[in-house]
Design a protein that fits this description.
mainly beta, 12-stranded antiparallel barrel, 4-stranded antiparallel beta sheet, 2 helices
Length: about 350
């Protein structure tokens, strides 16, 4: 009887293990040409570590938008200085340079404004394959080139699959989510700093579902960024603008006034004969209205006007213009007359 009990326990453990998310090169590596959309939120606690955790972030309130663009580093202003990188991640004007291989991702540079950090010893963002309980550690060193003088920095890093469980976001629930904790400890200006990043993944989405970044030093702990996946699990839309180079070859669209009460103006440019459509989505990615069905337009500048229903509730919405194979997204705020 004892043998049967042990066999049942073993089988149950096996099914549990196979149900957990494992990060792989084929399924999760950053890919040039991809985009990933987030909603920003003000603050959040990362929650517990361990197995079979439930993280309830359903009360997160979006405070903005962020799209991660993955592009060829050679098209960026400082790409020639980071020769080891084969992918650049562009977010809010900042550029992160990575070397992506079947073994993992290493960061070789960071460009923030006029400051470029290049890593002589890179730090690991992730190893492949990677799952709950896996750990990668090491040291890194970088040269921080400021407008005034170069300032070297070095430190240690640790990447660990520290938890798995159910992740609840405002727009979806994800079971068997893997949380990866990345810690970097470094000394800068005679101060020891710790940067901790938590990322949640699932097998159905290539990129992170939730990211929480916080900094710790001798004085305080600060939550630097909270961002969660902008789409619901059924992938209603994929709003993104793919830049062909940095800061982007496409000019995008204008949507005004903002905030808006009733009449919406959308300005856009067609560079070559293409089909154009314009849609309105709610904050969770659900289609509210098709303003303009796909229609072929010749090159030129256009300005279209659309009326919003007075019954449309106040809140955040997104105007999506598809011009050829490019998607452009603008956030608008609807307010109703009192």
């Amino acid at each position: 009887m004892r043998k049967y009990i042990l066999l049942i326990v073993s089988i149950a453990f096996t099914f549990c293990a196979f149900g957990q998310t494992k990060l792989t090169f084929e399924r999760n590596a950053f890919t040039v040409g991809d985009n990933h959309d987030f909603y920003l939120a003000k603050t959040a606690d990362e929650g517990k570590t361990g197995a079979n955790i439930t993280w309830d972030f359903s009360s997160l309130v979006p405070s903005g938008n962020l799209t991660s663009h993955m592009i060829d580093p050679a098209t960026t202003p400082k790409g020639s200085s980071v020769t080891d990188a084969n992918l650049a991640l562009v977010e809010d004007g900042n550029i992160f340079y990575f070397k992506v291989t079947s073994e993992g991702m290493e960061q070789f540079g960071t460009a923030v404004g006029t400051t470029l950090s290049t890593y002589t010893d890179p730090f690991v963002k992730i190893k492949y394959p990677f799952s709950f309980g896996d750990v990668a550690t090491g040291n890194f060193s970088a040269k921080l080139e400021t407008p005034n003088a170069p300032a070297p920095t070095s430190g240690s890093f640790k990447v660990e699959g520290d938890a798995w469980g159910t992740l609840i976001l405002p727009n979806g629930v994800y079971k068997n989510a893997l949380r990866v904790k990345q810690t970097r400890i470094y000394n800068l200006n005679d101060t020891t700093n710790k940067e901790i990043t938590y990322r949640w993944y699932t097998s159905s989405v290539r990129y992170p579902l939730l990211v929480i970044i916080k900094f710790e030093n001798q004085c305080k702990t600060t939550i630097a960024k909270v961002a969660y996946y902008a789409h619901s699990p059924n992938e209603k839309i994929t709003p993104s603008t793919t830049p062909n180079s940095f800061p982007g070859a496409a000019e995008g669209i204008e949507a005004y006034p903002n905030p808006i009460t009733d009449e919406l103006n959308v300005n856009y440019q067609v560079n070559a004969t293409a089909k154009v459509s314009i849609d309105l989505y709610d904050a969770s990615g659900g289609l509210i209205r098709n303003f303009l069905s796909p229609v072929t337009k010749e090159p030129g500048k256009y300005s279209d006007k659309f009326n919003l229903s007075s019954n449309l509730p106040s809140g955040n919405y997104f105007v999506k213009a598809t011009i050829g194979d490019q998607n452009y997204i603008k956030k608008i705020i609807k307010v109703n007359n009192q």
